[in-house]
Amino acid sequence: MSVQQYNRIVLKLSGEAMAGEKGFGLSPEIIKSVANQVKEVVDLGVEVAVVVGGGNIWRGKIGSEMGMDRATADYMGMLATVMNSLALQDSLEKQGVETRVLSSIEMRQVAEPYIRRRAIRHLEKKRVVIFAAGTGNPYFSTDTTAALRAAEIEADVILMAKNNVDGVYSADPKTDSAAIKYEELSYFEVIQQGLQVMDSTASTLCMDNDIPLVVFSIMENGNIKRAVLGDKIGTVVRRTL
After folding, report:
1. Residue 185: how many CB atoms within 10 A of its CB?
2. Could you tell me the CATH number of the domain that includes residue 136?
């Protein structure tokens, strides 16, 4: 029988994961599935924080390529993460899971301002906390937000849920049939080999603070629970092997 491995987790959801196969916008079925999986983990007594990307609505990189000021494009991306966070909050609360959205950009009508101690207190009360608006600063990704918040709240692990891949591969498995799936990696190997797990800032932050990372597919129901129970799914990245 599997034994619960983690007591406090940060779940990192890409914006694309919220869109499903469409690749843009919001998929009600996917959001409901994610909420179901989060509820399963909450019912185990695990404290859950979530960081959601915004790539299904807006990507700062696209804005930059259009000639838009990078900081402006990134702020637009942060607002997209707030929309995703509110959608996930609504779905969780419909299933009876008490949830709070904490935003790095103040918008008191829709979310609480991010305060570290408040976030920890919500978690201790077994509320799901969703961190919105990234770090509140341009030039930082939501991967870096996940690493930063995990360090701040002293999370045991970051669970990185993907919608188009079930772990870390040596190359893109969709275009390279010889791509090898890794079961375990060190952060140094991720950085050295340039593997597209998370950006280098986030990887370094996780490595320096000894925060393990589990990369897995969100598309299979129950995978978040399996990851929490320590089942061998996806790829585990640690400071040292």
Report:
1. 20
2. 3.40.1160.10
